[in-house]
Design a protein that fits this description.
Layout (H helix, E strand, L loop, with lengths): L2 H10 L12 H16 L8 H11 L10 H22 L7 H10 L3 E9 L2 E10 L2 H12 L4 E7 L4 E8 L2 E11 L2
Antiparallel strand pairs: 1-2, 1-5, 3-4, 4-5
Helix pairs in contact: 2-3, 2-4, 3-4
Length: 184
């Protein structure tokens, strides 16, 4: 049923004012059928579920609703959910239909920034900013900076974002240490 046919049916039947915003069940079924077939067609590349929903609306000649059209908007939300389910079922949760998956993946692997203070005794000798994937990488870099053979390191978490990296040489704690604070 096209949108034009829907309007003719809506104007000739006994719809109430609230029902005028909702699509007939046949129209919703047709949109979902197009979405299901689109999700099953693996040659077709969808950027995301919403693009597939818009394709379904276009193919049926249906105008997408606006939020003030309560009934049609609820149907639209349900159809979006259906589109997500169909794409996940047919292409997997990590499929190329998830436009944002690559963005989330990149941010998950983005290096963290630490403020590093080298402290010798009670004096701060150097301050740096350092990118690292985790505190262990910071500790490894700090160990290399000491340039003494046989140096061991211990990492102590002071709070959620601050660590002390102490250096030990032959089981004796050295005077210098590193304070690493995660830049938020």
């Amino acid at each position: 049923m096209s949108f034009k046919e829907y309007l003719i049916e809506a104007s000739t039947s006994t719809f109430t004012k609230n029902d005028l915003t909702t699509l007939p069940e046949e129209m919703v079924k047709e949109i979902k059928k197009i979405i299901r077939k689109g999700a099953e067609d693996l040659d077709q590349k969808w950027a995301n579920a919403l693009e597939l929903v818009h394709h379904g609306y276009e193919q049926t000649g249906t105008i997408r609703p606006s939020p003030d059209m309560k009934g049609a908007w609820n149907q639209y939300e349900d159809i979006i959910s259906y589109s997500v389910d169909q794409l996940a079922k047919n292409r997997g949760l990590t499929g190329d239909w998830r436009m944002s998956s690559s963005i989330f993946n990149e941010s998950a692997h983005h290096p963290l920034i630490y403020y590093i203070r080298y402290i010798n005794g009670k004096r701060i000798s150097e301050t740096h900013m350092l990118e690292a994937k985790d505190i262990l990488e910071v500790a490894d870099l700090a160990k290399k900076a000491v340039k003494k053979k046989g140096v061991e390191i211990k990492v102590k978490r002071l709070n959620n974002d601050t660590y002390h990296i102490t250096f030990w040489h032959h089981d004796v704690k050295m005077r210098e240490y590193v304070e690493a604070k995660l830049a938020l």
